[in-house]
Structure formats: structure tokens, C-alpha cells
Automatic annotation (TrEMBL), chain A:
Entry membrane topology: Multi-pass membrane protein
Name of the molecule in the record: Sulfate transport system permease protein CysT
UniProtKB keywords: Membrane, Sulfate transport, Transmembrane, Transmembrane helix, Transport
Subunit structure, interactors included: The complex is composed of two ATP-binding proteins (CysA), two transmembrane proteins (CysT and CysW) and a solute-binding protein (CysP).
Listed NCBIfam families: 3a0106s02, permease_CysT
Molecular function, one GO term: ABC-type sulfate transporter activity
TrEMBL record, chain B:
CDD domains documented for this protein: ABC_CysA_sulfate_importer (cd03296)
Protein source organism: Rhizobium giardinii
Lineage, uppermost ranks: Bacteria, Pseudomonadati, Pseudomonadota, Alphaproteobacteria, Hyphomicrobiales
Keyword Lipoprotein among record annotations: no
Family: Belongs to the ABC transporter superfamily.
Annotated ABC transporter domain residues: 3-237
Annotated Pfam families: ABC_tran (PF00005), CysA_C_terminal (PF17850), TOBE_3 (PF12857)
Protein name as catalogued: Sulfate transport system ATP-binding protein
Length: 285, 344
């Protein structure tokens, strides 16, 4: 009897941690329910369109522009976040100063704040008659109601993703590694550029991927500041909503399917780069 | 290059880690800083490296005052206990690092750097592993990479902070012998920190014993082991027994018995007798220390016998040849052949 049960559970190694079967079962059911079923529904709906219709809908100029704006601004915002997020994490990890804990807590605000509130706040600031907007307008710089405004909003919502992924890895860096570089004659800049940053690359990449993914899917904060001019500052998620409100379900599913494919491809590439660098540098190995 | 440390004092937020320490390190010497944790040995090493700056005092490299130089300018090689390798670089890149970051006018050509790094890897017996990453190496291999990396910059002095501390016993012994060989071949002035007395005594030309931020004794391994100059050194190095004795007319007395040891020239009064377990001879009476066997243990080639020597005081442990069988509760008499008196 026992021998038979054992042969049924060959995947399961004897372990001091019980419940592998149960935990895996729950995990898979949950993932299926929450992620796989809705996504396959989407794929199924768009495949029902037929290839010709799908292609026509997906290559519609307004759709293409919206996708370009969505992915372009998200990419740019994630890049900006990588730079400032790493600097911010560095300051939080390396220095002790009054108010450090307040700043550390503030980093999480974009997580918690309703994104619509953030969008309205940013619009008020950067609109041509807002505090900052009114200073920039004479210089010919327009932020609100342009793609630049979208980038600003996405930088805001994406920042904590970079900081919170890079920070713990930075804390792990041994001070001795920096000292070793110094004894070998490296100055601060060389130590940062050749020793510290390459070691952080996998974490930075993860932060980038998260911030980017968040930016692509962001809706609430963007629609207030973007101005939503078709072909110019209209993001793909908004276009989907517009199509839905027109009861144009085929168009909505087509855009959504294209977003899904592009997002999946980009995340896959980023994950592969990450896996490669992890293997190489031995992080988490 | 010779290194002189003069009247160094170092405080960490008012807590003194080193107190007026002076030390002359000769050129080409292999010297060990030995002491328990908190004795200041690592602090002293880091001060020589320039990773810490002294509160007071001076460090000389040759005749040059190095105290005002930064760690980068001192051109030293430093090996850390936990290797501190750059894990995103191959073994070859790790070893070459110190040369590749030099300003262009002092930097050897790419081919020369590669050649030098490969030579060093050959020296540390890691030929063929230059394309590996540190994560793919064993602890002993990593430490050898760290040593090659430190030697690549032709350092004035090689400083090693508990270099074998993170390795297991077998590898430690191997690397110890191997480090001695490397030193004899390259002739770098080398200072290493350890809390392992065997390591210090086996490896070093001279041993510096430290305690509580001070140097207790400097000497060859033989001098340190055979003629310790303080109760601390006697107790810290090797095994030792301590008996409270009395000096009377140049003779030593334990309680009301003469132990048959004369100490000419010693002033009368109480003292502490220090002797090593193996520096004893067995006797059949006369002036001796007599005790009752409490416990015997066979340790490798010797028999360790624990004796209760009576009084409120204590047990001592002596080492006998294994063929000398003793049963518990039997009486045994001995006399220390080599000993030292210390007074409070």
C-alpha cells in the first residue's frame, strides 16, 4: 500500500517541509483562475475575429499610434526611473541622515495612492496655468496634455518598483568588495562603474521590467495628464475603454491581444537576460 | 619593503582599539599578528593598509611617511577573510583588475596584463580556470585567486586578514604550507592576521602576540613558545598549567611541600608557577608535585592525565607517553622541567 502511494508521487522528494502536493495544487488552480482563464478568453475572443479582420483592426493608424505611445512612454519612464531609482536606493542604503526613514516611507507612496489622485495632482502642477507649468510655458516647454506628461505620470508610479528591487541587493554588497577595489588602486568612480554597478545589473533589470510593465498597464494617472488627443497623446488602455464604450468589442480585443503579445515578448526577453546574468554572476545560484 | 609602525593609537568613538603600538617589519619578512578577537590585530593591519586612519602615530613604508597617503596610493596587496572577489568578473579579469584600472601612462599593454595575470594564476596553481567565475570555485580556490589579484599590482607589502579563516581544516593546512612556499619564491614582505596559534607558529618568521590593543610579545615562533614573557602569552599560546606557589629561600613550595624546583635569585613571596603539560618528568618521591588521577584521555600520540594536586586549588594536566597506563584514583608524582614564575 505504502509502496503504491510512493510510486504515485514520484515528483515528490522526501522532505522535511510537508505539503508540497497541496501547495502546488493550490498555486496552479489559483494561477489558472486568476491569470490563465481571463487571458485565454482574450486570445479566444480575438482569434474568433479571423486573421484578416484582426490585422485590419490592429494596424489601424489610431491603434498603432496608441500602442506606440503606450510602450514608448513606458520605456522612457522606466529608463528615467532606473537612473533616479538607483541613485535614491544608493542614498537610502549608504548614508545616514536625519529624515531618512521619512524618505524611505515616501518611496512607497505611489504604491498606495490612488493613481487618479496622482494624475490630478500632477495635472494641476504641470498644466499651463499650474505652479510648475506656468514657469515652463514661457520657455516653450509643455508637459501636461502631451506625451511628455504621460512620461511624468509613469515615472511617478514606477519609481518604487526600481527602488524596492535594487535596495535589498545593494544592502547585500559587501563593504569588503569596495575596499578590495580601493587597495588595488581603483578610485571611487572606477569602483562604482566597474565593480558595484555590474553587480547590481540583474536587480536593476528586474526593477526596469517591473516599472516598464506597470507603465504599459497604467491608466488612472495618465488619462488626467495626457489630454488624450487621438494619434498624439492617447494611450492604448484608454483606446480599449473607448472602443468598449462604443460597443466595438472586436477592436477592443484586438488592441488588448496586441498589447498582450508585445508585453509578453518584452518581459520574456528581459527575463532571459536576467537568467543569463544570474547564471554568470552566481546571484541566487 | 620595510614597514614601520610608530606609536600608533586608534580610537573608535572613544573606545581605544590600539594603544601606543610600535612595530618594525623587515623587508621580505613573513610576520603574523596573533591574538584573540578584540585584540586589535585586524585594526593594526587595516591601519598599515590605509583602510583606517590612526588617531595618533605614523606608518612608514621604507623611509616614506605613508600615513598621509590614501589606500590607493600606498600600493599594497590586501587579502580579505571572505575573499571579496568581484563576482561578475572571470578569474582572469579579477586578477587583471589592479592593472587595467591604472592611468594610461602607467598601464601595461593588454597583452602584457594578460600574460602577467596568467603567470600569477600559474603561481597560485589555478592554470586553466581563468575563464571561470568566482561562484564556480571552491573556497580554497577563491582565496588563491584573491592572493593572485593582490600580487598583480606588485605591492609594497602584502597584507592578509585571516586568509584561511573561512576554510575547512584540511584546506587550511594545505594552503598554509603553500603560502609559505609562495612567500619564499616571491619574497614579498607579508603580514597576516590570525587567531589560530598553530597557523602563526608554523608559518611566520616572527609572531606578534597582541592583547587588548597592545603588543604583548614579538619574537620567532620558538621564542614565543619557549620563553613567553607574560602570563597572557603563556596562557594564550599552547597548553599551560598554573599553580599558586610560594618562594622561600630560592625554593618553590606548594602548600607545605617543597616541589623540588629551585628558583635562584627569586624574591620570597607568593607567585604563579606556569608550565606546559609536556614539560614534566615523573618521579618516585622526594621533592615533587603529587596528585590523584582524576581522568585520563588518549589524544593521538600522547596520554593526557588530569591530576588533582590537593588544596583548594586545582587540577593540572600533564602529558605522558601512551604506554604509561594509569588508573583513576591512583597517585602520581611529577616535577616540571621547564617553567616560569609570574607575580601579580
Amino acid at each position: 500500500m505504502t509502496a503504491r502511494t510512493a510510486s504515485l508521487w514520484q515528483i515528490r522528494q522526501p522532505s522535511v517541509i510537508p505539503g508540497f502536493g497541496l501547495a502546488l495544487g493550490v498555486t496552479l488552480s489559483w494561477l489558472t483562475l486568476i491569470i490563465l482563464i481571463p487571458l485565454s478568453g482574450l486570445v479566444w475572443r480575438s482569434s474568433a475575429l479571423g486573421w484578416a479582420t484582426f490585422w485590419e483592426l490592429a494596424t489601424d493608424q489610431r491603434t498603432v499610434n496608441a500602442l506606440r505611445i503606450s510602450f514608448g512612454t513606458a520605456f522612457l519612464a522606466a529608463l528615467i526611473n532606473v537612473f533616479f531609482g538607483v541613485v535614491l536606493a544608493w542614498v537610502l542604503v549608504r548614508y545616514r541622515f536625519p529624515g531618512k526613514r521619512v524618505i524611505d516611507a515616501m518611496v512607497d507612496l505611489p504604491f498606495a495612492l490612488p493613481t487618479a489622485v496622482a494624475g490630478i495632482a500632477l495635472t494641476t502642477l504641470y498644466a499651463p496655468n499650474g505652479w510648475i507649468g506656468s514657469l515652463l510655458t514661457p520657455l516653450g516647454i509643455k508637459i501636461a496634455f502631451t506625451p511628455l506628461g504621460i512620461v511624468f505620470a509613469l515615472v511617478f508610479v514606477g519609481l518604487p518598483f526600481v527602488v524596492r528591487t535594487v535596495q535589498p541587493i545593494m544592502e547585500e554588497i559587501d563593504k569588503e568588495v569596495e575596499e578590495a577595489a580601493a587597495t588595488l588602486g581603483a578610485n571611487r568612480l572606477q569602483t562604482i562603474r566597474r565593480v558595484l554597478l555590474p553587480g547590481l545589473a540583474p536587480a536593476v533589470l528586474t526593477g526596469f521590467a517591473l516599472a516598464f510593465a506597470r507603465g504599459v498597464g497604467e491608466y488612472g494617472s495618465v488619462i488626467f495628464i495626457a489630454g488624450n488627443l487621438p494619434y498624439v497623446s492617447e494611450i492604448a488602455p484608454l483606446l480599449i475603454v473607448i472602443r468598449l464604450e462604443e460597443f466595438n468589442y472586436p477592436a477592443a480585443t484586438a488592441i488588448a491581444a496586441v498589447m498582450l503579445v508585445i508585453s509578453f515578448a518584452m518581459l520574456l526577453i528581459i527575463n532571459m537576460i536576467q537568467a543569463w546574468s544570474r547564471r554568470r554572476y552566481g546571484y541566487g545560484a | 619593503m620595510e614597514v614601520r609602525v610608530q606609536n600608533i593609537r586608534k580610537e573608535f568613538s572613544r573606545f581605544p582599539a590600539l594603544n601606543d603600538v610600535s612595530l618594525d617589519i623587515r623587508s621580505g619578512e613573513l610576520i603574523a599578528l596573533l591574538g584573540p578577537s578584540g585584540s586589535g590585530k585586524t585594526t593594526l593591519l587595516r591601519l598599515i593598509a590605509g583602510l583606517e586612519s590612526p588617531t595618533e602615530g605614523t606608518v612608514y613604508f621604507g623611509n616614506e611617511d605613508a600615513s598621509r597617503k590614501t589606500v590607493q596610493e600606498r600600493n599594497i596587496g590586501f587579502v580579505f577573510q571572505h575573499y571579496a572577489l568581484f563576482r561578475h568578473m572571470t578569474v582572469l579579469d579579477n586578477v587583471s583588475f589592479g592593472l587595467t584600472i591604472r592611468p594610461a601612462n602607467r598601464r601595461p599593454s593588454k597583452a602584457d596584463i594578460r600574460k602577467r595575470a596568467l603567470e600569477l594564476l600559474d603561481l597560485v596553481q589555478l592554470t586553466g580556470l581563468e575563464k571561470r567565475y568566482p561562484a564556480q570555485l571552491s573556497g580554497g580556490q577563491r582565496q588563491r585567486v584573491a592572493l593572485a589579484r593582490a600580487m598583480a599590482v606588485e605591492p609594497n607589502v602584502l597584507l592578509l586578514d585571516e586568509p584561511f579563516g573561512a576554510l575547512d581544516a584540511q584546506v587550511r593546512k594545505e594552503l598554509r604550507r603553500w603560502l609559505r612556499e609562495i612567500h619564499d619564491r616571491t619574497g614579498h614582505t607579508t603580514v597576516f592576521v590570525t587567531h589560530d596559534q598553530d597557523e602563526a607558529l608554523e608559518l611566520a618568521d616572527r609572531v606578534v602576540v597582541m592583547s587588548k590593543g597592545k603588543i604583548e610579545q614579538i619574537g620567532t615562533p620558538d621564542e614565543i613558545y619557549d620563553t613567553p614573557n607574560s602570563p597572557f602569552v603563556f596562557g594564550f599560546i599552547g597548553q599551560s598549567n598554573i599553580l599558586p606557589v610560594r618562594v622561600e629561600n630560592g625554593q618553590l613550595w606548594l602548600d607545605d611541600r617543597s616541589i623540588g624546583v629551585s628558583a635562584p635569585g627569586e624574591a620570597d613571596g607568593p607567585a604563579q608557577l606556569y608550565f606546559r603539560p609536556h614539560d614534566v618528568e615523573l618521579l618516585d618521591g622526594g621533592g615533587c608535585i603529587a596528585g590523584i588521577v582524576v581522568q585520563t584521555r588518549r589524544v593521538a600520540g600522547t596520554r593526557h592525565v588530569e591530576l588533582d594536586v590537593g588544596g583548594a586549588n586545582t587540577t593540572v594536566e600533564i602529558e605522558l607517553p601512551p604506554e604509561k597506563a594509569t588508573s583513576d584514583r591512583s597517585r602520581l608524582a611529577f616535577r616540571p622541567t621547564r617553567w616560569k614564575l609570574f607575580r601579580d
